[in-house]
Amino acid sequence: MVKPMKTLALTLSFIVVGAASAQAACYADYKAKRDDPLRLHYGVAEISSPCDQPDAAADELRPRLGSDGWKLLAIVSLFGDEGLEKRRDSAGDYFLRY
After folding, report:
1. Per-chain mean pLDDT for the chain
2. Which pTM does this prediction carry?
3. Which residues 6+ apart lie within 8 Å of 27 measured at CB?
4. For residue 96, is it left (φ>0), alpha (ψ between -120 and 50) or beta?
5. Beta bridge partners of 15
6. Of 11, 49, 80, 96, which residue is 20 to 30 A from 20 by alpha carbon distance?
């Protein structure tokens, strides 16, 4: 027979592990530009911000893009793992680059 304290500890450990794995990855697809000469690109980036906060995603992505001279124009959408592969071809070289 399992003692109540051991059962409680085991249950709590499963809850903690489950909560950690429940935080799914979040991705943003975006548009960016460079000037002189004008160049545009569409890309996909993994973000750590919650998937329901486009402004936070933009704040996170701006410095990454800026480090290579790109300026973020827009966050197109935020999505999870389910939307990742269908954007791979469209993003090309900018798929998970930033």
Report:
1. 86
2. 0.75
3. 44, 45, 46, 47, 78, 79, 80, 81, 83, 84
4. left
5. none
6. 96
Which residues sit opposite 95 in a β-bridge? 44
Amino acid letter, residue 88: R
Strand partners, 45: 28
- Give all strands (DSSP E) within the chain, no chain letters: 26-34, 39-47, 71-79
95 secondary structure, DSSP code: B
pLDDT digits (tens, 9 = 90+) for 54-67: 999 999 999 999 99
- Assigned token pair, 58: 């933009």
Compute the distance between CA of residue 11 and CA of residue 3 in angstroms, rounded to an integer.
Answer: 12
Closest to 44 in 3D by CA, of 79, 94, 85: 94
Rounded CA-CA distance 65/32 in Å is 8
